Amino acid sequence: MLDINLFRTNPELIKENLKKKFQDQKISMVDDIIEKDIEYRRIKTRADELRSQRNALSKQIGALMGQKKIEEANEVKAKVQEYAQELKDIEEREEPLYNEIQELVMQIPNIIADDVPLGKDDSENVELYRVGEIKDKTFEVPYHVDIMEALNGIDLDSARKTSGNGFYYLLGDIARLHSAVTAYARDFMIDRNYTYVIPPFMIREKVVSGVMSFAEMENMMYKIEGEDLYLIGTSEHSLIGKYIDTILEEDTLPHRLTSYSPCFRKEVGAHGIEERGVYRIHQFEKQEMVIVCKPEESPKMFKEMLKNSVDFFESLDIPVRVLESCSGDLADLKYKGVDVEAWSPRQKTFFEVGSCSNLTDAQARRLKIRVNTSEGRVFAHTLNNTVVAPPRMLIAFLENNLQEDGTIAIPKPLQPYMGFKEFIGK
Question: Over pLDDT 90: what percentage of the chain?
Answer without folding.
Answer: 80
